[in-house]
């Protein structure tokens, strides 16, 4: 890639994150956009606390990152950084709709805080930051899927059960951890 078409080093401009959301994290923790060099900086390990990731190489990570970066205004991955390492992540996927006056619905995805940093309020701050970001980019609502194990956490974050999730998988049946 030439310098003019090189993917951005951050998935989206940090200035997109509302300041009050970014500044709400405890001392020593910093909220920022996902960076192209985060593969080896703890990001993938954070995701492994959530579900199976597979053996993703740095090149595969960067290929997916580049795909997301080209979808300008759709993918907003946030990273909580502590001592130079990613210790938490959450994503907002802004789905463009025809309904609601061509509105955008924000999907909260891949919420995960590294086990050793859980219990410090980082998950709640991440959800609040994702919601603030969703409002800032024009989403009329956010939705998420969760299991019974995490339902009370999301209730604490202001969410309520609004229906039943349905799914159909197109891969060989595997255990819940590997299914995702």
TrEMBL record:
Pfam families (UniProt xref): Acetyltransf_1 (PF00583)
Keyword flag Transferase: yes
Domain N-acetyltransferase per the UniProt entry, residue ranges: 29-177
PROSITE patterns: GNAT (PS51186)
Pathway connected to this protein: Nucleotide-sugar biosynthesis; UDP-N-acetyl-alpha-D-glucosamine biosynthesis; N-acetyl-alpha-D-glucosamine 1-phosphate from alpha-D-glucosamine 6-phosphate (route I): step 1/2
Record's catalysed reaction(s): D-glucosamine 6-phosphate + acetyl-CoA = N-acetyl-D-glucosamine 6-phosphate + CoA + H(+)
Protein name, entry field: Glucosamine 6-phosphate N-acetyltransferase
CDD domains per record: NAT_SF
Organism: Apiospora phragmitis
Family from the record: Belongs to the acetyltransferase family. GNA1 subfamily.
UniProt KW Acyltransferase keyword: yes
Domain of life: Eukaryota
E.C. numbers: 2.3.1.4
InterPro entries tied to this protein: Acyl_CoA_acyltransferase (IPR016181), GNAT_dom (IPR000182), GNPNAT1-like (IPR039143)
Keywords in alphabetical order: Acyltransferase, Transferase
Organism lineage string: Eukaryota, Fungi, Dikarya, Ascomycota, Pezizomycotina
């Amino acid at each position: 890639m030439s310098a003019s078409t090189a993917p951005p080093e951050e998935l989206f401009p940090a200035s997109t994150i509302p300041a009050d959301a970014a500044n709400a994290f405890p001392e020593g923790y910093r909220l920022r956009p996902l960076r192209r060099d985060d593969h080896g900086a703890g990001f993938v390990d954070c995701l492994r606390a959530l579900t199976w990731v597979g053996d993703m190489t740095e090149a595969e990570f960067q290929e997916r990152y580049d795909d997301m970066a080209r979808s300008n205004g759709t993918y907003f991955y946030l990273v909580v950084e502590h001592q130079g390492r990613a210790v938490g992540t959450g994503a907002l996927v802004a789905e463009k709709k025809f309904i609601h006056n061509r509105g955008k619905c924000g999907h909260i995805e891949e919420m995960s805080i590294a086990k050793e940093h859980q219990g410090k309020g980082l998950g709640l701050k991440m959800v609040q930051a994702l919601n603030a970001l969703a409002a800032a980019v024009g989403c009329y609502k956010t939705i998420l899927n969760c299991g019974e194990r995490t339902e009370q956490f999301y209730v604490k974050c202001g969410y309520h059960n609004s229906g039943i999730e349905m799914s159909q998988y197109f891969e060989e049946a595997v255990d819940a951890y590997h299914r995702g």
